[in-house]
Design brief:
single chain, about 290 residues, mainly beta, 9-stranded mixed β-sheet, 6-stranded antiparallel β-sheet, 15 strands, about 15% helix, about 40% strand
Length: about 290
């Protein structure tokens, strides 16, 4: 009976489970960004920030995920809408080509790109999105070149074989120094996205083409938008990176546990009732038998 009770309680709190080895990032860990046209809201579904005007970012903090470059009617947050490996995921929504929304993570200190072992993330595109069929959330390494800002190296689904984004399902992208097609946002690194062939190379090729210049990664961002005509809704989860001489992490985005949902309450009460009944039977005195 006690085993049954434990099973029931485990089911009641299953929504709080996270993938093994992952570092949980809760919706309530995000800053309350409420300046200008930014509005941050927390409900039972999670925490979101919508910025209807010019792009805004939370104050820079190292070692934590935060809203960045959110504007033009875009929304970013951590919600239950597209749960992955738990009860939530990072949520992104845009309204038109002027929208953009990111979540940013800054390292405590820059790390050499050459020490990268692997990077991966899971992405999701809602089938109701009207933005171009190739668009899906991206991951970026923000780069210093010999100590100076040099834009970002972008890891994006479409350029891994030029296939359109799947809809209403999760896709995992993984790259290493020598695998994956990555493009640059800044000419300081070489040919940019708009240049011939899109400047698509592996991380190692970007290192080689920059010769003796030191390329370091000072942060990671995930996001959507900026020039994406039409509306987009989707999500990201399980952002992982591993550097030999730097940070290694696997981030799982979740909604903080609050008051259990009605169904969970019912399950818990049933479990407590079963345990209570078992305890009463164990403590009841045997009846006196008269010969």
């Amino acid at each position: 009976m006690m085993k049954l009770h434990a099973l029931l309680l485990a089911s009641a709190f299953a929504f709080a489970a996270t993938s093994a080895g992952a570092q949980t990032v809760h919706d309530t860990d995000l800053a309350a960004l409420n300046t200008g046209t930014a509005v941050t809201t927390t409900t039972a579904n999670g925490t979101t920030t919508t910025v209807s005007g010019a792009r805004q970012s939370a104050p820079v903090t190292t070692g934590a995920w935060q809203q960045a470059n959110v504007g033009g009617g875009a929304t970013v947050g951590i919600t239950r809408d597209y749960a992955r490996n738990g009860n939530g995921s990072a949520y992104f929504a845009t309204t038109d080509a002027g929208s953009k929304a990111d979540l940013q993570y800054y390292f405590a200190a820059p790390v050499a790109l050459s020490s990268l072992n692997s990077v991966s993330f899971d992405w999701y595109r809602d089938g109701a999105s009207t933005a171009g069929v190739l668009f899906a959330p991206v991951l970026r390494f923000d780069i210093f070149k010999t100590g100076e800002f040099a834009g970002s190296l972008v890891f994006e689904n479409y350029y891994q074989g030029e296939v359109n984004a799947a809809t209403d399902s999760w896709t995992t992208l993984t790259a290493t120094l020598n695998s994956g097609d990555i493009w640059a946002t800044n000419a300081k690194l070489g040919p940019t996205f708009a240049a011939a062939n899109g400047g698509e190379k592996t991380f190692q090729q970007w290192l080689d083409d920059n010769g003796s210049a030191e390329l370091t990664v000072y942060g990671v961002s995930i996001g959507v938008g900026s020039g994406w005509s039409g509306a987009f809704t989707g999500a990201v989860d399980n952002v992982a990176f591993n550097f030999t001489n730097g940070p290694s992490a696997n981030f799982n985005f979740e909604v903080a546990a609050g008051v259990p949902e009605p169904a969970s309450w019912a399950l818990m009460i049933a479990g407590f009732g079963l345990v209570g009944g078992a305890l009463r039977r164990r403590t009841a005195k045997p009846a006196t038998v008269i010969a």
